[in-house]
Amino acid sequence: MTAKIIDGKQVAADMRAEIKTEVAELKKNDIVPGLGVILVGADPASQSYVTAKEKACEEAGIFSDDNRLPADTSETDLLALVEKMNNDPKINGILVQLPLPKHIDESKVLLAISPSKDVDGFHPMNIGKMVAGEKAFLPCTPHGIIKLLQRSGVKLSGAEVVVVGRSNIVGKPVANMLIQKSDTGNATVTVCHTRTKNLAEHVKRAEIIIAAAGRPNTITADMVKDGAAVIDVGVNRIEDSTKKSGFRLVGDVDFDAVKEKASLITPVPGGVGPMTITMLLYNTVESAKIANGLV
Q1: The domain at 30-114 falls in which architecture?
Q2: Among 57, 106, 137, 223, which is disulfide-ready with 200 (CB 3.0 to 4.6 Å)?
Q3: Selecting from 3.40.605.10, 3.40.50.720, 1.10.287.130, 3.10.180.10, what CATH number does the domain 140-274 have?
Q4: pLDDT tens-digit profile of 40-53?
């Protein structure tokens, strides 16, 4: 058996086309979804991410209010800008790119974002609603993982799922989403982490494996049940003298070996990554619809 590759780029492109069509319909009623983006400092990776998000907004027809601030911007000034966006009806979602400079309290800034505009899904109120099974903006990467599984025909209800990793960004939220009594859940979920004993024993039971440990080769072929669906969230740099950069990107899964046992598998890059920005657009459009009484 050789696994079918889950093409995250294609799934993301399909969803973005759907979002673009929905935005065009909203504009017929004078509703233009808007995303407020704040970048503090000149971190190259953050700049790259923000530029990609701005481009994605433009392609989807979403209004993007871009704010690139110097690294010495005060916490007070940043909080004032967030509050301005909270009160701006043209802005349906607010994204503050992390990490922030050390003199700014990230948790204070994230808490200042109105939960109704928290399209990243990380405000404590939205996290609480998610855990309680109430309607809320879902974190983009975990939600993107579930969309990949659903659109690849993987049945979630009743499935045995093992999540390897317990971060607040991926592991915990995706586990919570999968156990909900909803169309994104009804799975039986085991969460493994650095203190888990006999990791292989747990992973071998899984029909769906979500690897989000942040370490190459965490999941090897001997740990994978024949026919399992494998979602690799990891992005790790390893040395590679054949590359001009001197490194290459790999996930948390031993891809070449595991793809011979799995039924479905995501590559790195090109798997989960493209879904994160897509779900940010999705949440922004949902926020615009909520603000206009359409849902």
Answers
A1: 3-Layer(aba) Sandwich (3.40)
A2: 223
A3: 3.40.50.720
A4: 998 888 898 899 99
For residue 253, give the nearest of 276, 235, 237 by alpha carbon: 235
Domain ranges of the chain: 30-114, 140-274
208-211 vs 229-232, strand pairing mode = parallel
Torsion of Cα atoms, 241 then 245 then 250 then 254, to 10°? -10
By annotation, the residues acting in catalysis are: 53, 97, 120
Q: Is 30 left (phi over 0), alpha (psi -120 to 50) or beta?
A: left
State the residue for tokens 């701005």.
54
pLDDT tens digit sequence for 55-74? 999 999 999 999 999 999 99
Q: What DSSP assignment string belongs to 211-245?
A: E-SSSTTSB-GGGS-TT-EEEE---EEEE-TTSTT
Residue range 99-117: average pLDDT? 96
What is the sign, positive or negative, of the torsion defined by CA atoms of 249, 254, 257, 259?
A: negative
Put residue 89 in one of left, alpha, beta given phi > 0 → left and psi -120 to 50 → alpha: alpha
Please tell me if the domain spanning 30-114 has the same topology as the one spanning 140-274. Answer: yes
Distance CA 47, CA 287 (A): 25
Backbone angles phi, psi at 2, to 5 degrees: -120, 130
